[in-house]
Amino acid sequence: MTDQPTVLIDVVGRIGQVTLNRPASINALDHSMALAMHDALRAWANDPAIEAVVVAGAGERGLCVGGDIAAIHRDASKLSSGGGDDAAAAESPSGRFWADEYRLNLDISTYPKPYVAIMDGIVMGGGVGISAHGNTRVVTDRTRLGMPEVGIGFVPDVGGTFLLSGVPDELGTFAALTGGTLSGADAIVMGLADHYVPAENLDAFRDAIVSDGVDAAVARYAVTPPASALDSERDWIREAFAADTVSEIIERCRAVGVESADRAADRIASKSPASLAATLYALRHRDSDLAAALRREYRVSLRFLQHSDMAEGIRAQVIDKDRAPAWTSDHASAAATLDAVFAPLPARYELSLDTTTVQEESNV
Fold first, then answer.
1. 106, 261, 267, 250: which is closest to 181 by C-alpha?
2. Which of 1, 128, 174, 293 has its CA 20 to 30 A from that of 186?
């Protein structure tokens, strides 16, 4: 039997449908999938027969667990073992993938038609990039959203630093540095999602989009979300995560005197110090817009592809699963390397973003 495509592109009525189709890997996104998705979106942007787009994941486990981590590990292992520089990182499969993925993320953020992201189940890393930048973001009671990159020696990318740095009361800083998961209700409180539809109603909701349009479907099936657990922790998070260094954030968490704050401190302390320092710096120095954030994240991503913590973090968390990464720096030394991490790339390797294609096509 012929294998199915890893991205299913379909039109039902006047609705374009994109389904990530790797359910066994929770729809992990690879380069070919990002390109196929972007091609469909560009075609539909200027097609008068298409009124809206729906993006979902095959199976019941989630929209997308993130990038193809095994492929990234291969590049990180090679580049961090002495054969890496900015040029090699940019020209690696991961570097090329990120460049096209980030272009996709940017076009999603300016898509000229309703872009309905079904953020059901696991939505992490690259899954956030193809959903949270959209204009109609739907979560459910099964949503588990997160940017867990600091746990694998990486940093939030796909515009994650831009999204999280804009969340009030340091809730975005909390999510980025702990790498924990958020519920659908949490995502709405943080401004990362718009509507809450119970998972049991998703099929009917999608049918209603086809028959009645996006607005009518939302009006019929979206409900008030339950209380957000994260929102109830807002007061101590606001104070503890306002500190200027990772070490001080950990100290403030331990001083709060509640179990949830102690757990947060423990989680942060287990992450890569280099990743934490770069993440906090990116959050504290928010870019003016998503395009600028993606360009900076691309630089940082290539630098971490060359950093031994990334290969080691993926090994410990995903490959060997011993959960015992041997990080190469402490918090003080990690902070001292930030200038090099964020420095511009050689000009020919800076990320080029076509920010006008979809918008111009939609105005023809």
1. 267
2. 293
